[in-house]
Specification:
Helix content is 43%, strand content 19%. It contains 10 helices and 8 strands. Helix 4 packs parallel to helix 5. The longest helix has 22 residues. The chain starts with a strand and ends with a helix.
């Protein structure tokens, strides 16, 4: 399981400083939607330039204007960019075509996406599918991924699945048991008193659980 560090509500310099603290224990770096909205594509450019060996996810959450928005992400250095699962098929088609033409990847954000729609999206089997509990649902409605089941109809198929939204150490058992491929972790690390210590804890605990599961098999 990969760890994707989600960076939101930070300055670009603050994000870079934080990444330097935890980079040994994360796999991918997500330039969050709020960071992109506040600082534009320069946030993606600066973070990719500082961490060229890390995969950079531009969480642009495209729902329209796919060609333009995908191009600005990939030109800025993003390796992966996000499009919404509730977007029209023509938008997702265009987004994925742009990504494939540049040997880049696409993450489909399933926020507020129905089970029927998720099944329709399986035609994009090369994409990463992100099950997502939104920030407002976490902060205003008291929900978080620890309280969610990670089971989905998608897991019956050979697709890559990510989970985002309030993940904590307590989420890890189910993440591993459900064979989630990517844990998207934000506040648990970015707001910690010691981000490096917490990132290492996630890193170590994921590997310990994965090893235990492999031994059982």
């Amino acid at each position: 399981m990969k760890i994707q560090l989600a960076l939101d509500r930070l300055s670009v310099s603050g994000a870079i400083q934080l990444i330097k603290m935890v980079e040994d224990y994360i796999d991918w770096i997500e330039v969050g939607t709020s960071l992109i909205k506040e600082y534009g594509m320069s946030s993606v450019q600066k973070i990719k330039k500082t961490f060229p060996s890390k995969k950079i996810v531009a969480d642009i959450k495209t729902i329209d204007n796919a060609v333009y928005e995908s191009q600005i992400c990939f030109r800025a250095g993003a390796d992966i960019a996000t499009v919404m699962g509730v977007a029209p098929d023509i938008t997702i088609d265009a987004f994925i075509q742009e990504a494939e033409s540049l040997n880049k990847m696409v993450m489909i954000d399933l926020l507020n996406t129905s089970e029927d729609r998720k099944k329709e999206l399986l035609k994009y089997h090369k994409a990463i599918f992100c099950m997502h509990v939104s920030k407002d649902e976490q902060e205003l409605d008291g929900r978080n991924s620890t309280k969610q089941s990670f089971k989905s109809s998608l897991q019956s198929f050979d697709v890559t699945i990510a989970v985002a939204g309030g993940l904590s150490i307590g989420s890890l058992d189910e993440l591993v048991n459900q064979n989630i491929d990517i844990a998207i972790i934000g506040t648990a690390i970015t707001k910690a008193k010691d981000p490096r210590k917490v990132a290492k804890q996630f890193y170590d605990e994921i590997r310990k659980r994965r090893l235990s599961l492999d031994e059982q098999e």
